[in-house]
């Protein structure tokens, strides 16, 4: 984990009609770290991701990526400079086979610029590159799995496909929106090496999670949100001991 | 009483033709190539067969123009998710541009038609551009209005010939050129589009319909993709318009007529939405039908619309999908 | 002065035309491209009842209105309900129905002679130096009544509140027990009824001409787009904007461009502020 700040958000606020989803949230993410965002349901985690990655326009606040201001940029432009995200409600391209799902990100201008994954070449055969990427994330190459229709894959594989969609863009940052949700213990045990491998390759991960125990195993620092406000930040042990975080999750009486 | 259910199984022949085994025997090759060959050869032979009935040769030409428009609609609506209610816009723009190039700039037909196609497509894309970043219903609204707007403006301002239109456009030098130009264009468009939608670009365009958030998250601008799709569709429509201007040696307000908007839609819905061949088959059914119904005047539009609604509501898979299913699979009743 | 008076009349006219479409879209989420067809068929039905069936004026009006509402409801019940949610099919389907009605009327009904509907009160009066005929005053009055009715209906009546609820958030309303299909049916009946009401008020000003079917649809859509698809207040305000713009164009340029104004307004709106004035573009809150 280096000391350079890669992504920085200042004072992000967003209201939907009368509902204040985010209130003045600020945080910094260092290059190469795994940064967790936790909070009970409705605390605004996904809205925060949407605002930073350009899917929703925030009412207030700035976002900086490598000292360049990216506030208000459209979603595809933000993806092109290297900030990608997964979707909490997964929607692969159902009618396409798994490896064809990756053709779309591989077709994007960013993939063309970086020549695909590990030098697939500018005019490289995207199908081959796609299967390579799938192998990287755990689809067995020789089996039929990469060729199955995305709609027929089990959840664990679909989650990996979501991640693969991001990886195909050779990103600098991946916002992982609840990648552990809906997975069994063994599937999570299979995902964690993938997360660590990404970290080793220098990708900065920002993980929004409900499964705190698994998150705390991999995260370097964690931020907690409640009702749209940042209530704690620090490394995992500090955050879990914080009284406000406990109150948010467990309520007044349990503490 | 035992319960049965209907079961559909792929024919043995279909399974045998998957993969490399497709070339293992003449039977398999014929199974795959047969329908396509039938279509190509049939369409190419039509003008020769109809040598004795020149009126019907003209109908074949119009059939192919509508097939082009229907292909454009099918592509836009069922592959990219943009419902174009006003195909007449493309036809009108292409036709008038061809007329302008030919009559006022004295360009010969082999220049005026391609130029009108490309310039017309660019112009149409430009004027549709404002609604592309928005949801699909806006595209429908805007395309619905443009043909009506254009014809009213031309009429009111009395420009470009007003209600009389522009006449004196060159005809084609030879009859065979006249007939085969459009047939070959249509076949090229059909097979070209089929190729396009399975290429990488085509997958991205289909992604715009299926899952546009994913496409955005992959760093691709939705608006650019929709622009590209509209341009491709407009190329087909404007070519049809330019061709017709030379065919009738006249370009007028009727190029913006409702027929050019509604018949392609009906053709696609009846022929099978999403299978580009269905668009062609649907046109081949509807255009001769419209000739027979010419006597009825406006009523024929009522018939198209009634057919269209019926198919959308009750048999939304369309003819081609139904036929393809029969061709590839057989059904039987099995015990539950 | 003339411009002000005619502007107000034109604006209220437009809002009467557009509210039906706005209602259906905001409640049932169906763009009812058959709106113009319902308008013109209402006029035709009333004409038939008056002249062929020989009924007196008021019963013909009421029957015609009822028939139009019923037509809208039937359209929903038998066709739209089956394609609801499939945006492409909805658009094509309602458009085809509208076209079938309009062209059917062109072929089988409105041809040959001129068809007119009688005005409510013949004659005219003078307001602030401008001559205004009574029919136009009735239109303004009726328009204001309709606004009031809708406002009160959706605030104090249970069904009206249900409609508003579904318009704001369909899922939440359904969880409270409001039947989405029933409200869609009601909204379509209401929307069609409004179209018929507008027809009965406006058609006496001229002849019943089939082209009006298309014009009405275009105006209604233009007003709704500018006001923001889904906002009733926006519809009313937008109709004033376009209403005055049209009167100004008619006065200073020529009356041919009245339709062009509407269409240009759509394009400008889409370029400058796509969601319309009060539009609530539902972004990704629910989906992502």
Assembly annotation: heterotrimer
User: What percentage of amino acids of chain C are in beta strands?
Assistant: under 5%
CATH architecture of one domain in chain A: 3-Layer(aba) Sandwich
Q: Largest interface, by Cβ-Cβ below 8 angstroms: which chains and how many residues each? A: B-C, 46 and 41 residues
Q: Determine the CATH topology of one domain in chain A.
A: Rossmann fold
Terminal CA distance of chain C:
52 Å
Number of strands of chain C: 2
Q: What is the string of SSEs of chain A from the N terminus onward?
A: EEEHEEHEHHHHHEHEHEEHH
- Structural class by secondary-structure content of chain A: alpha/beta
The pLDDT mean of chain C sits at 82
Q: Which sequence of strands runs across the widest sheet of chain C?
A: 1-2
**Rg result of chain C:** 19 Å
Radius of gyration of chain A: 18 Å
Structural class of chain C: mainly alpha
CATH homologous superfamily classification of one domain in chain A: P-loop containing nucleotide triphosphate hydrolases
Number of H- or I-type helical stretches of chain C: 11
The secondary-structure element order of chain C is HHHHEEHHHHHHH
pLDDT averaged over residues of chain A: 85
Main beta-sheet annotation of chain C:
2 strands, antiparallel
- The helix count of chain A comes to 11
Tell me the strand order in the biggest sheet of chain A. Answer: 6-7-8-3-9-10
Write up what this structure looks like:
The complex is a heterotrimer of chains A (255), B (336) and C (288). With 255 residues, chain A is of the alpha/beta class. Chain A is built from eleven helices and ten strands. In chain A, strands 6-7-8-3-9-10 form a six-stranded mixed β-sheet, sandwiched between helices. A four-stranded antiparallel β-sheet of chain A has the order 2-1-4-5, covered by helices on one side. By secondary structure, chain B is mostly helical. Chain B has one domain (54-335): ABC transporter involved in vitamin B12 uptake, BtuC (Orthogonal Bundle). Chain B starts with a strand and ends with a strand. Chain C has one domain. Chain C has helices spanning 2-28, 35-51, 57-83, 87-109, 134-156, 158-168, 170-175, 180-202, 211-227, 232-252, 258-272, and strands spanning 124-127, 130-133. Chain C has a two-stranded antiparallel ribbon. In chain C, a hairpin with a 2-residue loop joins strand 1 (124-127) and strand 2 (130-133). The B-C interface holds B 77-78, 81, 83, 85, 127, 130-131, 133-138, 140-142, 144-146, 148-149, 152-153, 156-157, 213, 258, 262, 265-266, 269, 296-299, 301-302, 304-306, 308-309, 312-313, 316 and C 31, 33, 79, 82-83, 87-89, 91-93, 95-97, 99-100, 103-104, 106-108, 214, 218, 221, 225, 229, 254, 256-257, 259-260, 263, 266-267, 270-271, 274, 281, 284, 287-288.
